[in-house]
């Protein structure tokens, strides 16, 4: 199993590193991966605190929620650190921490979830309604930390809102700032293509107009031909009606 997390322990303090995409490649559609995550957390033994280090552009919503719920049930105090980027579902994971510390050169971003879907008009409307519920639940969680109303958080998600560490602290998303850190980049063109308003320092070459990156296309040329898009969807073994939901 390819893990997208790494646990370690020092004395009575556990450490969790979430660097890169919050992946669903093994999580999606099975019960093995969330169980392994919980087993790895439990294997730390008796700890007083869990330090969660994040540098991630986001990923699968339900994988992120499972992480949040598993950690929330753990008795240790959860302290989150934004080491570089906490975007999308990675932002929401930090919002669930007891305390959030942001490196001065880190960034935060919140937006609405997105997905791929195929089907008739009834199925697509149902999918949109379900995504609206997801956005509302995410906004409710973030509002608890920041003190903003759910409606205010929904507006921030609609706008795809980016924050520097200092701005995040001012807005209630972080509790304190820490010294700048040098960490490896976690952004690739495939992730930038998901965002509407990425800051200039995170921009990369976008797909051609009318095209998009398929989920498996890390580092490959984007698809712009509609027939190719349809063929790849038809050949995919994923279910796009009940689609993988991204943040």
Q: What would you call the structural class?
A: alpha/beta
CATH architecture: Alpha-Beta Complex
**Amino- and carboxy-terminal Cα gap:** 23 Å
Q: Strand portion, in percent?
A: 15-25%
Count of helix runs: 8
The secondary-structure element order is EEHEHEHEEHHEHEHH
Average pLDDT metric: 80
CATH topology: 2-enoyl-CoA Hydratase, Chain A, domain 1
CATH homologous superfamily, by name?
2-enoyl-CoA Hydratase, Chain A, domain 1
Task: Please explain how this structure is put together.
There is one protein chain. This protein has one domain: 2-enoyl-CoA Hydratase, Chain A, domain 1 (Alpha-Beta Complex). It is 35% helix and 19% strand. The chain is built from eight helices and eight strands; from the N terminus they run E-E-H-E-H-E-H-E-E-H-H-E-H-E-H-H. The longest helix is centred in the middle third of the chain and has 26 residues, at 121-146. Residues 204-226 and 228-243 have low confidence and may be disordered.
Features:
8-stranded mixed β-sheet; alpha/beta; 247 residues; globular; 2-enoyl-CoA Hydratase, Chain A, domain 1
What is the topology?
Elements: E1 6-10, E2 13-19, H1 32-42, E3 49-56, H2 61-73, E4 77-87, H3 89-95, E5 99-103, E6 107-110, H4 121-146, H5 150-158, E7 161-164, H6 165-170, E8 176-178, H7 189-192, H8 226-235
Parallel strand pairs: 2-3, 3-4, 4-5, 4-6, 5-8
Antiparallel strand pairs: 1-2, 6-7
